[in-house]
Amino acid sequence: MIGLIAATLRVATPLIFGTLGELFSERAGILNLGIEGIMLLGAFVGFATTYSTGSLWLGVLAACIVGIMAGLLMAIMTVYFGVNQHVSGLGITLFCTGLAYYAFRVIFGTPANPPQIQPFMQTEFLADVNILGPILRQYPLTYYAMLLVPVVWWVLYRTNFGLNIRAVGENPEAADAAGINVYRVRTISLMIAGGFMGVGGAFLTLSTLGFFTFDIIAGRGWVCIALVIFANWNPIRVLWGAFIFGGVSALQLRLQLTGINLPYELFLALPYVVTIIALTIANRNAAYPAALLKPYKRE
To answer: Pairing with 80, which of 42, 52, 129, 294 sits 20 to 30 Å away (CA)?
Structure first.
């Protein structure tokens, strides 16, 4: 049981980063379907930077920067040019995915035998804390992800910047009339979102695996979009949604080891099925930001 809880925290980490990023974007009224591609590009850039420099933290920084740039590109298309958010988001995913795959082949060649790096080690200074030791033995980015949840809640609900984001996401016309620069707030929100997404993808290469593969994100970006709805756009509930998916993912790995005579594909699908069920239940009471998916053009 202790091992399952520890594994749940690790599996939930990239989801927390990605979902908090998507939360920033949607709170400002922009649905960012580019999250899958941004996480993949962050995973690659973080890995490639660490492979070249030998610094894991430089890899995290590079992943964050490339995510911010992808968020800025999304802002240019949706906020300033008014491109359909579905089209631009899927375009970002295709662009970032193609860029990551192309750069990997140019730099490293065939993905058959990908190069490896020494990933982050799990912290040891809390490993001897009685029964909680194995649970607290986590990667550094896992601790940062947990810390970000209350920080994001405080920013959104206790600061003027957070109030501006929520105002822009609910009624951009009224926010503009009150003197809030809607374009700037949405642009900054998308850039913050992209930075979180990039770090979420980098966690997989810099902490969990130590190498990059083409299917490394495996739909986690789409799960993050579902978790935002499950959380009802509340950062604290994001944590519980990530724990549900992470817990079921960790559980299915253990179920495969029990020798149950079932196709392994059924176990792999289990976390996504649970996510769909949770989303279906939560969607009935979801309070969407009123301006979500609605482009704003100042008169």
So the answer is: 42
